[in-house]
Write a structure and sequence with these properties.
repeat; WD repeat and SOCS box-containing protein 1; globular; five-stranded mixed β-sheet; mainly beta; SOCS_box; WD40_PAC1; ubl conjugation pathway; 5 helices
Length: 422
């Protein structure tokens, strides 16, 4: 495991480039709780951006329109602008075939949301049912929303219409995640201490209830091959589940406070978890070992201090699709951009009351939601991945750490492929 540096000079850290924001109308009642942006998400194909803007409302905006309003695409990102909040259905003419904006009233406070896309040849796990209410096509794109009342509502992204209403949780649905294999298997994490697995290709049939958490479940994430699920919550443990057998593989111990966010690297070789203990831990999920700790307080606090209240709670962590960059949101009003081979942030940016973050599908931008219902965007630090790293990612997509360790190759290469050089 890598050690911490003695200090970090913030003058040596780059500043992330702010490119725009999505704002909500200000009204007197907005000062009350319920206006928070608890979740932001990008569609798998990069076509849409969605965020829970508070007070039951989810906004779906074509990502290309966001970029256009922010002042450019690709290298043309000069100006910082605010995106108009006018609904496209309120008079704006949208050409046929172009993505439309939608404002969705979910009926209750929205805590979690996730995009899901289908692959028609991927069969439902409920093989005995021949008739289904919905036939999902090749271009089907769904949005799942988890609500304060324990319900999950499934929407058609292209039309904004409600398709399914899933009811089984008994408390807030805090997080949602779709299996990335196109099967439309959905996992919900709830304050009722359970994770529930739903098969949307079987009209939303609940397949399994996963029980091991003793307290609220905050977040869950699939591995890229959909075989493993990570879940974290109010407690110091990180849970790994076998999603073929729906059984617990192991619990990872290392945090000193509640673990609130988790995400796998694109090759599945790394797992990032964020905790109120002021740290992001990078794990080897195959071995259950700690590879790297990203500290947000220097020197690192003692376990007793980290286990209590402090101003460096890490609220969210996200892995970039290049497999090298990580973003974290903390209570010290900062967003940090890290690389897996550096112990200090590569870039930082101010963010007041940040709650969540997500990278765009191509990894060029980071979106972060805040307590006032707004979303802020930054251009991610640019760097060219080495051929070594690209080869490592390609190999690790199909090989576990155990398999890598049996390869007849020099120890230094084996260590590099296992990410043990972090």
């Amino acid at each position: 495991m890598a050690s911490f540096p003695d200090s970090v000079n913030e003058n040596e850290i780059g500043k992330a480039k702010f490119i725009g924001e999505l704002l909500v109308p200000v009204a007197p009642f907005d000062q009350k709780s319920g206006r928070e942006t608890w979740t932001v998400a990008f569609a798998p194909d990069g076509s849409y951006f969605a965020w829970s803007q508070g007070h039951r409302i989810v906004r779906l905006v074509p990502w290309s329109k966001c970029l256009k309003n922010f002042g450019g695409e690709g290298s043309n990102r000069a100006g910082t602008r605010r995106l108009s909040r006018q609904n496209s259905e309120g008079g704006t003419v949208v050409p046929v075939g172009e993505p439309r904006e939608h404002t969705i009233d979910c009926g209750d406070i929205v805590w979690g949301l996730a995009f899901g896309s289908s692959v028609p040849e991927k069969q439902s796990r409920c093989v005995n049912i021949e008739w289904h209410r919905f036939k999902f096509g090749q271009d089907q794109l769904l949005l799942a929303t988890g609500l304060n009342n324990g319900r999950i509502k499934i929407w058609d992204v292209y039309t904004g219409k409600l398709l399914l209403n899933l009811m089984d949780h008994t408390d807030i649905v805090r997080d949602l995640t779709f299996a990335p294999d196109g099967s439309l298997m959905l996992v919900s994490a709830s304050r009722d201490k359970t994770l529930r697995v739903w098969d949307l290709k079987d009209d939303g049939n609940m397949v399994k209830v996963l029980r091991s958490h003793q307290n609220w479940v905050y977040c869950s994430a699939f591995s890229p091959d959909s075989s493993v699920l990570c879940s974290v919550g109010a407690g110091k443990s990180v849970f790994l589940w076998d999603m073929d057998k729906y059984s617990l593989i192991r619990k990872l111990e290392g945090h000193h406070n509640d673990v609130v966010s988790c995400e796998f690297s694109p090759d599945g070789a790394l797992l990032a978890t964020a905790s109120y203990d002021t740290r992001v831990i990078i794990w080897d999920p195959h071995m259950g070992t700690v590879l790297l700790e990203l500290a947000h307080l220097f020197p690192p606090p003692s376990p007793i201090f980290a286990g209590g209240a402090n101003d460096r709670w890490v609220r969210s962590v996200a892995f970039c699709h290049d497999g090298r960059h990580i973003a974290s949101i903390t209570d010290d009003r900062m967003v940090r951009f890290w690389t897996i081979d550096e112990m200090s942030p590569q870039a930082i940016a101010p963010l007041t009351n940040g709650l969540c973050c997500a990278f765009s599908t191509d990894g060029s931008f980071l979106a972060a939601g805040s307590r006032d219902g707004s979303v802020h965007f930054w251009a991610c630090p640019k760097s060219i991945a080495s051929l070594q790293h690209l080869c490592r990612m390609a190999l690790r997509r199909v090989m576990s750490t155990q398999q890598v360790q049996t390869l007849p190759i020099p120890p230094s290469i084996r260590s590099y492929l296992s990410y043990q050089d972090l």
